[in-house]
Structure formats: structure tokens, C-alpha cells
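Lab manual, section 2.4: Encoding a predicted structure.

Procedure: take the sequence of the chain (154 residues), apply the prediction step described in section 2.3, and record the output as C-alpha cells. A sample record is shown.
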Amino acid sequence: MTTTQYLSQEKKGELEQELIDLKLTKIPEIAQRIDEAKQMGDLSENAEYHDARDQMAWAQSRVLELEAILHNAEVITTTGSGDGVVDLGRTVVVKVNGKEKEYTIVGAQEADPLSGKISNESPLGEAFMGKKKGDAVVVEVPAGVQEYKIIAVK
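Recorded output:
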């Protein structure tokens, strides 16, 4: 199943750099550690060898994961149209329980709720998508059912 991975240009660059670093630096370093550990003799009780093998397996699986993400990546572009509709890359200001909160709608790879970045796939992000200033959005969140009033869409 291939799913579009929505990324900002910045995040895409970070993932591309991580991939290059893994392929050109980390994997060759781990391979050298494996080779050095093999030369120590008995592999059955060689902790360095087993640790390096585990790290190699992780690095290789991360390369595959990054390649899949980047292959299916679509860079989020926000237009300055000012249409006021919540979409990927937009920031939405809401009022909930008498408090104002600000959320930026991002792809799943960039979600960081503590810094106000929520995924378009999360219950809250999904509920905001396509809404406009003035709309009320009712969402079931872990704290229960909440009503969010959209104050602004940037």
C-alpha cells in the first residue's frame, strides 16, 4: 500500500540528508566495525559483533523506510490565496474551553503536537480539514468530546 507522505520542503531536505548520511557514512562505518569484530575470532560470544550487526540491521531498515517516504513524498505548498480554508500547511487558530490555541496542519512525518503541529491524519487535523473561519468543529479527543470554534486560518 503506497500512501502519499506530505512533507514540508524543510522536512524533505532533512530526510534526504539523513538518507545520504546513512548510506555514505554510517553504514560503511558499521560494516567496518563488523569486519573488525569478525577478526577477533569466536563470533558466538562477541558482543561487539552482535551490536554492530544489530546496528546494521536498523540502519538498513531505516534506509528502506526513508526511500519509501521520499518516493511517496509530496511537498506541501500553501498558496497565498487567502481563501481561509484549512488545508495542509495552514495554521488554524481555534477557541476551545475559553482558550485560544494555534495548530499547524502537517503531514504525519512532521507531527509534533507539543509544538502545535498536528497531522492531517489525526482526529483533530482531519476534523479541521476543509473548514473555514467561523465554523464549529466537534471532535472526540482523549479528553472527551470537544468543540473547537475556528477563529482564523493563516
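Check your result against the sample. The mean pLDDT is 90.
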